[in-house]
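Dissemination and training. As part of the outreach component of the grant, students in the summer workshop were shown how a complex can be specified as a set of sequence lines and then modelled as a single object. The example used during the hands-on session is reproduced here so that future cohorts can follow it. Participants entered these lines:
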Amino acid sequence: MFKKLALRSGRAVYKIAAIILFLVLWEIAARFHLLVSATFLPPFSKVITVLYHMALSGELWRHASISLQRSLIGFTCGMLFAVPLGLAIGWFQKLGNFLSPLLQVFRNMPTLALLPVFVMFFGIGELSKVMVIFWGVLWAVLLNTIAGVQDVDPQLIKAARSMGTSSLRLFATVVLPASLPFIFTGMRISATTSILILIAAEMVGASRGLGYALYFYQGNMKIPEMYGYIIVMAILGVVLNYVLEALERRNFRWRDAGGIASE
Amino acid sequence: MSQAVSAVSATSGIELRDLGQSYILRDAGKKSEFVALAHFNLQIKAGEFVAIVGPSGCGKSTLLDIVSGLAKPKQGEILIDGRTVSGPDLDRGFIMQGYALFPWRTVRKNVEYGLEVKGVPKRERPEICRHFIHMVGLSGFENRYPNQLSGGMRQRVAIARALAFDPKILLMDEPFAAVDAQTRETLQDELMQIWAKTGKTVLFVTHSIDEAVLLADRVVVMGTRPGRVYQTLAIDLPRPRTAAGMRVSAEFGWITRKVWELLQEGQGYMTPETTPKTSVSDVAEQISAQVSL
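and obtained this result:
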């Protein structure tokens, strides 16, 4: 029992050993001014202390909550738009052929380059931020959904059709479930993208939010606070990805080989 | 080539009337017509087990696609119980070489699929599924996903899925081609038992002569270019048969040899320059005289 616990914690330490090593090096480099002056690289311990105080004062949550809200709204709207559109494009070949050149052009436009355009169209309020996230998250999901539909094993369609399955049922019972893993992968990529875009959008024109806070502290030379927000963003991204990956594993167990039963 | 079996009543079984299928091929801008099937006539009695053998590319699978209703023939028609087939339906169960199981459905849910399409009430489905899963020897594996099963087990699920919605006809497209030899023999024996139990009409496509002779009441040898019935042979080997039993049967050996000869002939039919037709058919005649098929 104790041995097992020790083994498990040993494994956990190994998993995050590289991170710990990095933080230790950061601390040493900052304390002994090895890389840059202490002004630009405060020790990790100091950053954590500052972060702790910001969390206690409620300031961190004030910025984080608005960021999460924007992210979530933009992301949800993006999914609601991209998944049905992707299913339709993947399913109706003519529609796909018609739209795909336009989609390729849109997809290859850097989202952040469009930021000024969104500000002009939707003002500097919440709407432009939500819209830019909406735009940014569209593509990964859209393209993955299209690929998912087009990748459905024709044998499965044949099997279902041979039983006289209607097109609607075929779509609901074969095409959709077969595409779901693709759609989910697209969503996972998009979720990470949404945070990335959000931060950049908030740095341009906002009075609240993680991106704004980062930009604000950098402008005021409050470097430990700035690093604090960078760490928060990194943690946010890692947690999000971890949660989505766990969900993916749970929902698509049928995809991994598992134990093959023998005759 | 005339058929070896006299006409059966058109009110039962399957009747393939003058089926023809062709595709337009585009090769380097030039269009050409590829005739996959031409004047294909065959009558299958209700409850009969008919195997179709032919070399790859002879149009066997095209034929099954047409009978299943998935493809429309360019010419001719299919009658099932005297009625013209207009599309796929639950009166035929299609079993494919690649299993084609829905990977996101467990064994039970796969078997249930046809019942859902058929509109069988939810409360009746589990009992039906249990029955057919038991029949193919997969009791205890109901909640497995296909990727947790071996190839042979997957094909059993596919068979159970096709049996569950109670079609009158089973269409099988090289169903055992992808499994290892030992598993194949087991599956063949089981299929014969299931057939004896359920009395389905079976149209079984294979490129294995042994398999065709082992399983079928009648073997249809297809000729190539275009795909057509070259000859049909009634197999009157006594039943019940087993794969192991047939291997030591001299008669089985003779019949498979005969089918092999016919296959050679059927292939050489349109290209006499590539096959020494006379000598082969001489041998075939000698053998058929000996076996008195």
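The two ends of chain A are 37 Å apart (CA to CA). Students were then asked to discuss how this feature might be tested experimentally.
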